[in-house]
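call fold target=PhnD/SsuA/transferrin family substrate-binding protein
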Amino acid sequence: MKPILRVLAASTAVLALAACGSGSPSGGTEDTAEAAGGELTKVTVGVIPIVDVAPIYLGVQEGFFEDEGLELELQPAQGGAAIVPAVMSGSMDFGFSNISSMLVAQSKGLDVQVVAAGAASTGEDGADFGGILAAPDSGIASAADLSGKKVAVNTLNNINDTTVRAAVRKAGGDPSGIQFVELAFPDMQAALERGQVDAIQVVEPFLAGGQKAGSTLVASNYVDTAENLAVGAYFTTSAKIGDDDGTVEKFTAAMNKSLEYAEQNPDAVRDVLLTYTKIDAETAKALTLPSFTTEINRAGVETLAELSVSDGLITEEPNLDELLP
C-alpha cells in the first residue's frame, strides 16, 4: 500500500505560517504509536514547488518514508525564508531551504540544524538547474551587464541574490547597484515579458520554461559562485533532535534513500514533477536536473558564508559545525 501524501495548497501554507503555534505537529502518543500498534508517525515538511524537492516526492511515492514508519504531509511555500520560521515555531517538523536562508537564520540565533542534503549545482556552466534569464532584446549579454538593473529573485537576502552578485563580480561587473525585486518563481517570466524587471533568477522547472518562452540564459549563477555548490538542504531544530532523535534519524535515512533514487532515476524525477508543479511533460523532459547528492559540499557553504558577510546579510561568519550534520 502506498503511503499517504497530503499536499496542501500554497495559500493554506501561507495561512499556516501566519498562525504559527508553539506545539509540534508530530507530538502526542497518537502520532508516535508505531512501536505499540504499527501506526505511522506523522511529520510535516515545508517544501517549495521546484525541481529541488523532487526526491522527497519520489521517496513518498516509492515508500521509503513509510518503510521508516513515517507519514509525510508536504506543505508548499514560496521560499526557504518562509519555511524557517515555521520549523522554528514547531508548526512544521522539517523544512527544505536554501543554504543562505539557514545561514541568516543561524546568525539571528535561531536553532537551525541541517539533517539531510537536498540539491546541488551540476557544476556545468550553461547546463545547471538554476540561472539568470533576460529578454533577447534587452542588451544584457552577460552577468556584468546586470549592474544597475532590476533583477527578480524568489526571496530577498537568500542564496539567489547572493549568487547573482557573485556571478556579476566574476564577469567583471559591479553588483552594488542591482535592485533586487521579490517575486514568486511562477510570476517571474510574465514580469520579464512585461518589462517590470530586467532579468530573473530562476531554477527548474522555470528555467527551461523561460527559455522555451524565448528568454536568454545570461549566466549560471550557482556555477559562478563555487564548485558543486550545495544549494538547498532539509533541516530541523537541535531541540527536535534532542527530543525526538528517533524520528529525525528515520527522516534522514529515508531522505538519503530518496536522494540516491532520484540521482539514479532521472526519468522518475521528470515524471514526479508533473504531480506537484504546473509544467507539462515536454518541459519536464527538457529541463536540467540538479545533482541529488547525499553529501553537502562544505567548501561551497563556506563560500556562501563569506559572501553573506561581505554582502551584509549577516555580520559575522556562522558556526558551520553547529549548522551542518
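return ok
Residues 1-36 have pLDDT under 50 and may be disordered. The longest strand covers residues 113-120.
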